[in-house]
Amino acid sequence: MYLSKLIIKNFRKIKQAEFNFVPGLNIILGPNNIGKTAVVDALRSLLACHEDPYPRLFSDDIHRIDMQPNGDSIEFNFIFSELDYLDEAEFLPALVPIADGKFNAHINIRYSVIDETGRMRVKRWCGELEDTPVTVDMLESLKSVYLKPLRDASQGLKPNRNSQLARLMRLNGKQDNQGKESIETLIKRFEKLLKRRSPIKNTENTISQRHNKMLGEQLSQTLQLEVSGTSFDQLTSRLSLMSNGFDIDYNGLGYNNLIYMAVVLSEMINDPSVLYRGLIIEEPEAHLHPQLQVILLEYLKNIQKNDEDKIQLFVTSHSSNFASLAKLNSLTCMIEKDSQLKVFSPRNIIFDNSPAKHQKNLKKLERYLDITRSELFFARKVILVEGMAELVLLHALTRFTKNKYNIREHAISLISVDGLNFDCFMPLFSNEGLSIPVSIITDADPKSNEINADGTKQSIYPKLGEKIILSDNTKLLKSKESDQIKIFHGVKTFEYDLALYEENRILMLEALKEIHPVISNNLKEKLNSTTENEEKAKILFCGMFERKTGENVQKGRFAQSLSDILNDIDDSKKFIVPQYIEDALSHVCS
Fold it and tell me: Which residues form the Endonuclease GajA/Old nuclease/RecF-like AAA domain (predicted)?
């Protein structure tokens, strides 16, 4: 049994949203202030526990339109799927039939305003009829633990009757009566032995004597020191954890949260009275450094393969680290579109109409989604480029655009796909996906009909603005354009397109001189020997990246050198930005 769907209506920033979950791990991604905490509180409205009571909501939590409350109620609808016969028996009133004689369990919660103070009344019902109440047994069969961001987990690990440690040990004691009785026998023996020792006897006598003097024989009480307790339950309330020989208070916040999580999971797994187990973790990146994030996520990803397969986990995050490490199947993304919340799951995106190609592109995307590229899940505007050279230079080039675009101020995410791997990224930006403006800057790589002596097609070096025959790959990308996704290219490659302008060639030679002074001087002489613009562009481009002798200049290294120069020069010097790059920036910024 697992929570397959949650519908939230009229709650805080959420007018209405539907979340579809999977068994095991669910990672809910979204930027700050998108409503992730609202999702957490919606889950907690049903999945609470003794340590974390149901959240109290007020009229201020009602969704607002034009600063006014949208009605007087909030509603949450929960659907549980894959019930076994024990689940069906416990949730009988909540069952709603689906296909093949199977059932889902529907539970609904409504908060309604009851007076002018803003207090709200809670109503819980189940099944298809609103007059079917949720029973206490149902609620007790749904157990969840909520871990807050920046929580001081050490408090839950300290000696206390209701500590997580105490509950876990009492649960283990119920399942092992013989072991529990042997511990109680040992405790009583140990208590007697301790009380015979002089420091304890003297302490007890000192307190009793002082107490008798204060109150007299008629009013004084009989006092005894209790050292270790005399029962199993008393012992559990005194349990504490040490870490590497130190008290838990001296341990780091991140490690304490991981320890606490281990105790929580152990208790839930060992509790046979619970039919549904949930763990809600809000922003674990708040107290875990990247390496611990990786370790935690790897454990959570594999949780279904172990004994914990009956635990469903909900993790909210705005960390691109979590987004990059998780399987796409476990992700649920929250984005804002036209001032409204939109929810989508990458697992539901169609990457290709062919099932085989769909799976291939899906796995390809998972491989390419590192911590940098996973930024796209939180982006408002995206420019995809082929490689590191474009990635480095575009930041510097924006200074010289006609509209003085600033990538950071316009909140543009600039992402390299390492080659021509745009095909696995594009479906993410469809209307069913992220649905944000995307510009793809790629090379035209024009085709030539001329054949070399060795049978290969000749390379061509077009003039500025010349009509060209696009490569098959660029044609394919153009065929997949939409209102959101646009393809932009020049006449050949990024570097050649830059070299088509005289002003650019001066600074490009200067950048080349920083890393390859001999090559720079040789090319400068060759450039001075011709007056044709496209011939000069060809000389400079081929002299760096299509050299007939020696190794080619590294594009990334050259781009970094040119970027440094462009960032340092004053406004009196010019650098011409090709029109297609201007258009790419304009598309995402318009």
Answer: 1-49, 166-323
